């Protein structure tokens, strides 16, 4: 049996290149095990205790990251998994089930020290397998987190775009009605055959619509003004909702008195309605322009944030636009929870050498987490300043803080304190990976009412061209 096992190991895709004496040592220090379809190989958070060499069969790990279990990695004949020498992955991130029955060979961890001494080639092969496994997990995790982040961005953008889009549609509909009323009023004025002095008076009053109030009316001031306008209009036999259109215009009762001193009856009614329609048209056109600009700015922020059409290579990055765009794209969440979200960037902040898409992913993850932690009516601040040869970005919330017993685990993959389906446990892990990929790092300080995530990135030392 031992000879057959050595022969089988010699055909193994991962370990077959090892010398026969090392394969013989391995065969003598492990045991065979049969696996059945549907068998649970390991539960989530179980500690790895053995090296697993697949001889036949297949099993897979499925992770639920908020959208149901999904296969992130599988193993078949020729693969190795479980606990590998020098690996820092000591617990399984999710349940592992057998998809196809077969046979595995296991070596307990107590033999690892001797194995690294007696079997250098096998140890080297296992280290390479560990690196490949880490790369596959990292790629899968990052892709999943990017998709989830894109989903959050899309939901937030849809919410933010809905308000200006609705405002633009509403204003456009009202504008159509206002233009119809203006045309009717113009026809009545033309039929009245007004003289130059009368037309000049009407035009002077209408020009006041161009002016903009220095300060908006308070609710009480607005109510008082509408009441005064309604009283004037009623006393001059002008009905309808004209007062509502004039209330925001810089038109005084004195202006209307000048009209009434020149015009009367149906002509005064037509003139007031024409002035009112002109004021309303200008206001509605301004609302449409503001709404369109808001939508344009949101789309531009998303494009800048995702670095669309840009190569994923390190370059000199100005952090301020990315920080402000991240806040813009998450502002809907802050408003929904009545959170005060602010950004303060040191003037003339130096650029950092980094991948733009990476650092913006970091800001999204950390600010989003801070908004969750702050709770309703909380505060989240984002600051950026130079420190020696680095730029330090701080994301601070006034939530309850992170208990000391959890601080060592918050960067662990799949660790989350959020309810099932509301967190993947990957956000902080991904943020730290991205920071380190850009030669930076993330640190945390936490106490009740103040949690600070501190991101440090190296300054680009090359002179600007």
Q: What are the main properties of this structure?
A:
single chain, 465 residues, alpha+beta, Jelly Rolls, Heat Shock Protein 90, 3 domains, five-stranded mixed β-sheet, 13 helices, elongated
Helices, by number, come to 13
CATH architectural name of the largest domain? 2-Layer Sandwich
The H-level CATH homologous superfamily of the largest domain, spelled out, is Histidine kinase-like ATPase, C-terminal domain
Q: Based on CA inertia axes, which overall geometry fits? A: elongated
Class based on secondary structure composition and strand pairing: alpha+beta
Task: Quickly name the level 1 CATH class of the largest domain.
Answer: Alpha Beta
Model regions low in confidence, pLDDT < 50 over at least 5 residues? 419-425
CATH topology of the largest domain: Heat Shock Protein 90
Strand order of the largest sheet: 10-12-13-15-14
Q: What proportion of the residues is helical, as a percent range?
A: 40-55%
Distance between the termini: 71 Å
The helix/strand order is HHEEEEEEEEHHHHHHHEHEEHEEHHEE
Number of E-state strands: 15
Proportion of residues in β-strands: 15-25%
Mean pLDDT across the residues is 82
**Biggest sheet, in brief?**
5 strands, mixed
Radius of gyration equals 35 Å
Task: Give the tally of structural domains.
Answer: 3
